[in-house]
Amino acid sequence: MALKHDWTKEEILEIYNKPFMELLYEAATIHREHHDPNTVQVSTLLSIKTGGCPEDCGYCPQAARYHTDLEGNDLMSVNQVKAQALRAKASGSSRVCMGAAWRNVKDGEEFDNVLEMVRTINKLDMEVCCTLGMLTENQAERLAEAGLYAYNHNLDSSEEYYKEVISTRGYQDRLDTIGNVRKTNVTVCSGGIIGMGESEADRAGMLVALSTLNPQPESVPINALVPVEGTPLAEQQQVPIWDMIKMVATTRIVMPETQVRLSAGRTQMSREGQAMCFFAGANSIFAGDKLLTTPNPDVSEDMEMFKMLGLNPQKAFEKKSQPESVAAENSQFQSQGEKPKWSRPAHKIDRNLEAQQKAKTKA
Ligand code: SAM
Ligand code: DTB
Ligand code: SF4
Q1: What is the spatial distance between Cα 6 and Cα 25, in angstroms, rounded to a whole number?
Q2: Which domain holds residue 187?
Q3: Average pLDDT rounded to a whole number, residues 285-313
């Protein structure tokens, strides 16, 4: 079945506000048609350049203008990054996501070092993601050639509410960076934050902006705001777990093939709450006792939770086999010449081949 790319705010709000059990059932059903419900992808965040950011994102402890307790750091060395990536791999993570507190990437020595970090982690047979702020098309291409798997750049909220939270760059700037990544074979990771004081219509608006991208992002992180003292959003009330479950379920329904990541805010969620998010279609988490600068559950706690729920961490670059029920249905579809239900984004082998071919053409 072709994916729907013309979702409206009204349609999405209607889904978000369905009776809770109906919403959960629909989301879980769609999740099972497109994904293995017992597999969850595990990423480890690594803040390679912390603090001192010139932007004014109202939620962010790394913005230089807010007086938080954060200790900033210059760009880490390639060796430090390699050591951290090895630790992440040993603890069961298949992806490292490197974050830098930059407004945008600047060509030069620091970017060259980041490219070397990407190549180094790739050689460890781990997926590499970066979130470095705004990118030009050329920078996106250079990251692709270095072997980047995914680029994270969030829309954060609806276009209308975004303006209440960030003034130093616009929604279109974000869409342009996502567009530049899309021109390469790097997969797109883009999502947002709930609990910043936005309305349900703003949540739906963000999902309209993401789901009408064609193709839809391969990965959508849903963050619950982590309120940090010193930031303008420090006094926000914790987002109710019900809202988080409803947001995950709605995201799953409007973007069936996307990896939905249960992101920031898990330290405040019970295991039961997180289990409902997985049931509703979340199939990725950030693991490790730190997100970029704020706390996250210990790896051992997460592994205990996975064991309890019978969840398995997804292997790097794994092309998942189809659940049997879907495979049976697909063989029927395929004989009738229809597109199979189960599909996965490009994986390492295809991407490396493409990169090699491009390099050859350029030479
Ligand atoms: N500087 C880059 C940028 O803004 O694109 C990359 C790093 S930035 C910290 C990545 C994302 O983390 C933000 O877009 C936002 O969605 C999320 N984030 C930052 N602070 C957060 C907080 N306090 N709570 C929840 N999510 C947060
Ligand atoms: C995303 O959507 N969430 C992650 C990742 N992408 C980079 C970051 C969460 C940051 C939470 C606040 C902090 O630890 O500084
Ligand atoms: Fe800077 Fe990114 Fe934080 Fe905004 S979210 S202040 S761009 S580090």
Answers
A1: 23
A2: 9-313
A3: 95
